[in-house]
Specification:
Number of domains: 2
Helix content: over 70%
Shape: elongated
Largest sheet: none
Order of helices and strands: HHHHH
Strand content: under 5%
Radius of gyration: 30 Å
Number of helices: 5
Distance between the termini: 56 Å
Number of strands: 0
Length: 121
């Protein structure tokens, strides 16, 4: 953030009225020191940023793969029960299917409903 002299003039004048001179010098010195240190901060390492983005992308891909595998196992095991005419609604079918999936990766009922619709079940 770049601070202009116009934006700080009113603040400095109010500070000068409220603080004794020795305390005012210390506050202004600390403020200058803070601005100097903020200006010295280096830009983030581009390799580190790239590595963080790659880990996040890989994590999303792994989670998606596990969710789809869980649904594919469900469809393989319960295909006759998943036929739509047997259910009052698509949501009740998806919620039932969600309860059948056990494990660390359990998708939400909307994700399951969308997946089953893409399979035309």
């Amino acid at each position: 953030m770049k601070i202009t002299s116009e934006s700080t003039t009113a603040f400095d004048q109010a500070l000068a009225r409220r603080l004794p001179p020795d305390l005012l010098r210390m506050v202004l010195h600390n403020e200058d020191e803070l601005q100097r240190l903020q200006a010295q901060q280096s830009a983030p390492d581009p390799h580190k940023l790239q590595a963080m983005q790659d880990r996040a992308r890989n994590g999303r891909a792994y989670r998606t793969m596990r969710l789809e595998a869980a649904i594919e196992d469900l469809v393989h095991d319960h295909r006759p029960q998943l036929r739509l005419p047997l259910w009052k609604s698509r949501r009740s079918r998806a919620e039932w299917a969600q309860k059948q999936i056990h494990g660390e990766y359990v998708p939400g009922w909307r994700y399951i409903d969308t997946y089953l619709n893409t399979l035309h079940i």
